Amino acid sequence: MATARAVSGHPGEKLDDLRIVEVSLDDPEAFGELFSRHAPRLHAYIKRRLGPPLADDLVSETFAIAFKQRERFDGRAEFSAWLWGIASNLIAKHHRQESRMYRAFARTGVDPAEDGVAELASDRAAAAALGPRLAKALAGLSAQDRNAVLLLAWGELSYAEIAATLDLPLGTVKAKIHRVRAKLRKALPQEKFEEKNDG
Amino acid sequence: MDELDALRRMRTTLAREENSDQLAMRVGWRAGVSPQRRRRAFRLPSTFKLPMVSLAAVAAVAAGSVAVLTLPSDSAGTGTGGPGKVGAPGNALLVAATSVEKGKAGKYWHSSSIRGEIFAAGKSAADHYKIVSLQRSEGWMGRDGNSWWGNQDLPDRPWTDQDKQKWQAAGSPSQLEVPSAEGPVVMFLKGASTGMSVRPSPPDDDGVFYGLTQKQFAALPAEPAQLENALLNLKGHWRAYQPDGPEQPMRALRGKARSRALSDVAESLLATAPTPPALRAATYRMLAALPGVKAEGRTTDPLGRTGTAISLPVDSTVPLGLYTAPKQLGTYRRQWIIDPGTGTLLAVRDLVVTPPRGSRKLRPGDNGKPRSLQVKDMPDRFHKPGEIVSYKVFELGEWTDTEPKLPGQ
User: Where in this chain does the record put each RNA polymerase sigma-70 region domain (chain A) (predicted)?
Assistant: First the structure.
């Protein structure tokens, strides 16, 4: 489970990202390549956390900050971890907004984050089954716990990447996620984990 | 399913990645330009809520471009009839049953289908293109137990127009090695189709239908519950993967595994077997009564024909009975596309729910070395939720009294 999809696509990309940052010090337009590489996935992740309208804002804010502070990026960590770290801090600033959406979902069975998004009826049905219970549990998590478990489940980051992104020791991340998973597990009905429709 | 899987299934509609150019345009991101200026220049106030689709369309119009919502994931995901409209469970199946019930049977059921499997060439999600590998299969199955089958390889081709552009940018290679769960496979993107040579199947070759003799097949009941009961007695290797062992009756399965096996047999009854109209109708009705079968609204099949999507409660989409070890690292769902008006099964397609992740230990191979299933070897390693991994489209299904032309005749 720890070997989730790497944030940066392939091993050569780390150097490339760093080099692009360096080039962009003289040629700001070059930074656009980093947007192309990293924005779609980051955007999809933030959409899942906060809904589409806010995700648009936060992606542009994340890249604006990254661009402004690009001199400080020294290549010791992956560019992607640095970028996702900036985004995670911004998301944490919307902690209450995010909690409100989870609570509304838990209460009504309709997820405000998906408001206006074209979706399949089946997805709605699937969400209706466990979504509200999960949402209720998510609403009760601290910003840091929420970041950790959702970087794993929705961001598809590995434990090591989460540690780099949140600037925490690996052991702390593992312990945190272990604890959060136990909380989420309690929120789910046990019979949901067994096959029920025994025709 | 554990709590992490449950979490992964939440808000999957929001997990779709957008094209970076469209995204840059919509959020107005440009290096060195402050967000405030951008927002005034490009964005609607964020309190003004439009569906994302509309925002993307607005951006497209602004850029004088229309090539926005043409990815296969979109056509697969939302269909053409718009989202949210749920048919009564199985209603379309019941309509199909009525439509097909009164037809007349001929001597042979003549069918032709194309199977497409999607592979990916490239090293990263940002820099890859997808290729569809195609094979056609044509058959005549007689109610007298005789049958003829032929296969034909079609040239593989880039999956979407975008994939085609990337393939061309890579120099339009005619051969290409791509990863798969069973090791690298070679795609042939140019050249002609192989010939289709139709051959008679040996008589009494394992029965005519899942081990049933022609007589037993003809005796299948045309009442849905009785049909289901009869099919549950069919013996086979009904699991997506299991150690080698004796065949078991389908009745030994529970839950989704049973629904999967029943729907596989139902697919054969409708698509390839010489199934008389009343039995065909019973097949649709049986399916409509399975727990978890849902109608999902209008959509188009891979040939562009309009139909109704039917969602099946499957827990694996790998072919049944072939493997002794797991072959997938993602989770998937299966859809049928039917034309209720004619009672035709148009296509079956498998969509990603959760893209492949992690790895899985496998038993040592022939050389004794430890093996494992890795994301980097998965054909769908760059797929996003909702995208198609494989499909089968039934281009032809008709009764005929004419036997096929064989080579040399």
Answer: 34-100
Number of domains in chain B: 1
**H or E, element range at B187:** strand B185-188
From the CB of residue B94, how many other CB atoms can be counted at a distance below 10 Å?
19
Q: Which residues of A touch B82 (CB under 8 A)?
A: 118
The verdict on residue A195 lying in a domain is no
Q: Give Cα B180 distance to the centre of its chain.
A: 17
Q: Which residue has the tokens 């106030």?
A: B45
Q: What is the pLDDT of residue B368?
A: 63
What are the 10-residue block averages of pLDDT along chain B, 409 residues in total? Answer: 84 83 80 43 28 31 31 34 39 87 90 93 92 89 85 87 94 88 79 72 63 87 95 88 78 90 93 94 93 87 91 83 78 92 94 90 67 88 94 94 76
Task: Assess whether A85 and A149 both reside in one domain.
Answer: no
- Same domain? A89 vs A162: no
- Identify the burial level of B350 via C-beta atoms within 10 angstroms of its C-beta, where 0-12 means exposed, 13-18 middle and 19 or more buried: buried
- pLDDT (0 to 100) of residue B102: 83
Q: Name which of A3, A24, A154 is nearest B358 (Cβ-Cβ).
A: A3
Across the interface, of B13, B255, B386, the residue whose CB is closest to A197 is B255
Give CA separation, B31 vs A70, A184, B36, B174, in Å: 11, 40, 13, 39
- The pLDDT, as a whole number, for residue B409 is 58
Residue A110 lies in a domain: no
Cβ pair A117:B52 closer than 8 A = yes
CB contact under 8 A, A152 and B4: yes
CB contact B21 to A (< 8 Å)? yes
Q: How many domains does chain A have?
A: 2
> Which domain range does residue B232 map to?
3-400
Does residue B378 contact residue B11 with C-beta atoms inside 8 Å? no
pTM above 0.80, yes or no: no
Which residues in chain A come in under a pLDDT of 70?
1-15, 115-128, 190-199
